[in-house]
Amino acid sequence: MEFQNVSVVGLGTMGHGIAQTLALAGANIRVFDTNHKFLEELHHRISGNLSVMMDAGAIPQVDESEVLKRIVCCKNESEALKGAEFVIEAIVEDLELKKAFFQRCETIVSADTILASNTSSFPMTEISQLLSRPERAINTHWFNPPHVIPVVEVIPGEKTTQQTVDQVVRFLKELGKHPVRIHQELPGFVLNRLQIALFREMLDLVGRGVISAEDLDIAVRGSLGLRWAAVGPMRVGDFGGWDVLTKVYEVLASQIRSDTKLPEALADLQLQGKLGLKTGAGFFEFPDEDYERVVAEKDRKFMAWAKVLREHYES
Ligand SMILES: NC(=O)c1ccc[n+]([C@@H]2O[C@H](COP(=O)([O-])OP(=O)(O)OC[C@H]3O[C@@H](n4cnc5c(N)ncnc54)[C@H](O)[C@@H]3O)[C@@H](O)[C@H]2O)c1
Prior knowledge:
Elements: E1 5-9, H1 15-24, E2 28-32, H2 36-55, H3 64-69, E3 71-73, H4 77-81, E4 86-89, H5 95-106, E5 114-117, H6 124-127, E6 137-142, E7 151-156, H7 162-174, E8 178-181, H8 191-207, H9 213-231, H10 233-240, H11 242-252, H12 264-272, H13 291-314
Parallel strand pairs: 1-2, 1-4, 2-3, 4-5, 5-6, 7-8
Antiparallel strand pairs: 6-7
The structure holds nicotinamide-adenine-dinucleotide.
């Protein structure tokens, strides 16, 4: 493997799944989280994930204890960073905390250790501002759940070298991921920009009663979602014909929502405290007693589709 010894710091929603992915691929991992509960529960949590993934056929049968043996939980940060060739930071989304973390990293790891952040919003150029060797700092933006979703956006900072980018892309491929290179550090990188552009229109349409939330999900899954998953949206354009799309674009571009105001449907949800699964309701109802079942079902669906995609990408 490109890197055999990896440190993962921050073991919440993202970090634990990233550590799992690395260990499953055969890397030796040292991990740390300031919340000791996450450290104590890590092996149990990953063991549960692995069982669900094996049951779903998302990964081949593996000896869980062999995978877990490769993950060493450390009592402090410096112990976790010792000997790392690659560091992945998945701590809370706080710029100052991230900057300080990587500064401390530089005093512990070797000069050529790659320093990767999983930040959703901060440019690596900013996070690595105070580093003496920012050329090895890079953003690898994984998607939740990171042990299931194949794509990772790779966004270099202004000073990141091409060699760093190439090494990271090779490494992510070795982990079974599908890294995509992002060539400019734009807010939201690429995929969150697309997601918000679509959410703006979808929330507007649902808010105005043009379509119900239920029907919108049915419609997107059975049309855009299916075509995008199967061949990708740019090929959908090629297959459909850009002459046709140009005409549709010219008619619709001025009709769809383009302002920056929060869509009313979203503002209403906030007011009602309907923030989705975590509060028991969003557009849909999630009774407390269904929580575990709903999460497991969602994860099983993600895994089933990720499996289809993997076979498809690989064929
Ligand atoms: N949740 C998502 O969907 C998602 C997706 C992509 C990227 N991200 C990004 O990944 C990062 C982590 O997000 P998350 O959702 O896993 O957050 P989370 O709150 O679930 O986990 C963060 C963890 O970091 C720990 N932590 C905080 N400060 C620390 C420090 N100094 N040292 C060690 N551990 C520390 C916390 O105890 C917590 O366990 C953020 O930058 C976030 O923006 C999140």
